Amino acid sequence: MEIAGELEGAPFTPGDLRRKVETRLAAVGQSEEDRGQLQSHGLGGAQKRHYNTHDYSAEKRDALTTLFKLLTSKPASVSSIARRRTG
């Protein structure tokens, strides 16, 4: 995060890491519910608290696999595009 210039001058905190993970997984389409399960935010509402006993293991594994790919993939390269000449 420091190399990428993603820290805004303040000391790094665990919250910075959690925020970055949440943002990156959202950007690649991981559902809000799965991200919440992965980060142990828990689920609100009576139905989810009392009736949904699914452990979300597969969803958490999928989110972790996605995060691993994000962290270990090669960064994209950017090529310059020449300006068109008009006239």
SSE topology:
Blueprint: H1 14-27, H2 32-38, H3 46-51, H4 57-72
What is the multimeric organization of the chains shown?
single chain
Q: Which segments are poorly predicted (pLDDT under 50) over 5 or more consecutive residues? A: none
Strand content: under 5%
Shape: elongated
**DSSP strand count:** 0
Derived from helix and strand composition plus strand pairing, the structural class reads: mainly alpha
**Computed CA radius of gyration, to the nearest angstrom:** 19 Å
Distance between the termini: 44 Å
Secondary-structure element order, N to C:
HHHH
Q: Which whole number gives the mean pLDDT?
A: 83
Major β-sheet annotation: none
Helix content: 40-55%
- Count the DSSP helices: 4
Write structural notes for this entry.
It is elongated, with a radius of gyration of 19 Å. The protein is built from 4 helices and no strands. The chain has a domain at 14-72. It has helices at 14-27, 32-38, 46-51, 57-72. Helix 2 (32-38) packs across helix 4 (57-72). The mean pLDDT is 83. The protein is mainly α and 87 residues long.
